[in-house]
Amino acid sequence: MPLWRKKPVPTTRGPGAGRAGAVTAALLPGTPAIQNAIPMPFFGTTPFAAPGLGVIASAIMLAFGLWWLNRATARARLAGEPLEFDGPAAPVPQQAHFGGGAKLEARDLEQVHIAFALEGLPQKHADYFSLQVFAIILGGGMSSRLFQEVREKRGLVYSVYSFSQQFADAGVAGVYAGCQPKRLDMVRQVCADVLSDVAQHGITQAELDRAKGQVSGGTVLGLEDTSSRMSRIARAEMTMGWVPSVSQVLDEVAAVSLSEVRSLAHQVWSADVNTVVVGP
Questions:
Q1: Average pLDDT of the chain?
Q2: Distance CA 198, CA 162 (A)
Q3: Are the CB atoms for 100 and 272 separated by under 8 Å?
Q4: Is there a contact between 108 and 280 (Cβ–Cβ < 8 Å)?
Q5: What is the pLDDT of residue 22?
Q6: Residue 17 has what pLDDT?
Q7: How many CB atoms sit inside 10 A of residue 131's CB?
Q8: CA nearest neighbour of 249 among 119, 122, 133, 121
Q9: pTM above 0.85?
Q10: Cα separations (Å) of 191 from 162, 172, 185, 205?
Q11: Of 51-55, 85-89, 110-114, where does mean pLDDT reach its minimum?
């Protein structure tokens, strides 16, 4: 973000500027992008194969990207288009307030979509990584509580999962399920029972170990391409003001304890729940 403000870019050109930077970096020799890794077994090469061509291609992309960006900025100024720093200061966000409730919306759909949502944690909260691990345990894969109870044991839904989103000053956690209209009441009851059981009795050590491995593995695998790396950096810079290293993230995940997740589960899922149902 400091670099973005230092070099003013029209707001409408932001995605293009980011893409130009990602493509330029992906062409550099040694970049761990999947496009570079796939041909390696077939040609017997390494990520540093043809370094000269990679440097030349990167230089061409960089020169073209800077030319395009300066040209777009000049045009935006002539057209009176506001730049990032030209407008008034961003308003101070109001504190989010969460409360229980229900909303039903009738739509002509084949399935009924139901979601339970409640207050989560902001990005900078001390229990951020504990919530990530807990979301995996609750509904983040085929071994999760919700998947096993709602789909595998009872066959009530095709899709069921938990989600957790963090922002700079607030967060949301919840559960989604899609089912046939005649199964709505049963799905809602089973989901409520799972959430109640987790809030009251917590989780097991085996569930914690599996979830920590899944979060750690997903963190590393999510860095295989340049675009994902840039998205991670931008998201951390905007919400936290600094970018943790991959090793720091893995250490934080490894440090999550059973007692922390149990306490968090009780804290989050004992609050008032918002329920939304969309369907026929």
A1: 77
A2: 13
A3: yes
A4: yes
A5: 63
A6: 64
A7: 23
A8: 133
A9: no
A10: 11, 18, 10, 22
A11: 85-89
